[in-house]
User: Fold this.
Amino acid sequence: MNTVYDVTSWTIPGSSVTCYDDIGAVINSMIADIKANQTSQASKPGAVIYIPPGDYPLKTRVTVDISYLTIRGSGHGFTSLSIRYNTADTSTWYEINPGSSHVIVQNTDGQSEAFIVTRGGNPRLSSVTFENFCLDGASFTPNENSYTNGKVGIRFDSANDSSHVENMGFVYLEHALIVKDADALSVTENFLAECGNAIELTGSGQASKVSNNLIGAGYVGYSIYAESHFGLLVTGNNIFPRGKDSIHFVGCTLSNVTANRFHAFYPGVVTLAGNCKENLISGNHFYRQPETFGPLTGYNNGLDDLFGLVQLNGDNNALIANHFSYNVPSGSITPSGATPTMVLVKSGDSNYIAANHFTANVSVHTVVLDASSTNTHVMDSGTSAQFQPFTTSYGFRATP
Assistant:
């Protein structure tokens, strides 16, 4: 029984198509072979599919419907395609495309995804791993700066357990990674940039982690989006501009956002939306400045500076020991003449904000409490002049 496959040496039965014609068709053929040779309910060890360094067009979507499958390359191969697109002359460059184990998502079959992971019935899919290769959405028209081309790198579309996405490169995809109904998911050490949306955790999930990634979504999408997740750990990520939100939680509970660096060109860096409860945001660095890249000036996420760098909605969330750096010229603040908000408690009960440090080149409101918020406690997170409550239901201790 074969359990190790190499895309460069595989022959599709009855076909002359190779990985250099369509790596998607080749991998689908390999998965069919795995299923044909692993029929025992008690022993289905799965397999490893290896993608050596090289350039491989993917024209046919790959459907992963078996557990214990690892699809592995030998290098994430990321390089900036946005810089290439916005450079008039690249004739003297050493290289202009991603490299290493480089899969070019062409999808001429009419499907949007390069890989879809899905299976009905029981049990749910388990231990599916993608690691160490590049998914490249390639050039597209009319505006590559939008990162909107309809392409999806990897979509987990049914419940899954203990799956891994590690050391991958994602570039020029409208949606890099979408995972639905995840349990114990690990997304770590990836490079996800110049994509419309980077990581989207949909449906629901529990006990998962997004750690040690380099992430930069487009201005219309999210760097990390999660809905209805319990116990999600987001830590050690370096999230750079220009996502609509660096982190956007909807209805998440008992989750941690710790030890991340957030560099943003827009307000709305971390948003707890819906009814988020008992989440901890701690030990992060927030840096807000205007757009610095000429071709993308004039684009934004549609939010103004009263939205907050952090916005809280929900109960018993804690924002503790974070550092905020704000450096926006007064003429670039919206609405014109407004005092920017660093932290906005938009709604909810018994939220706790303490020991946060703020630096800014202009006067700011460090913490603002909207009228619908109740029992908020704010301690050592700004002076009395920097604190702005629109409710009488709060406790406040000014920074000495």
Q: What stands out?
A: DSSP finds two helices and 41 strands in the chain. The longest helix spans residues 19-37.
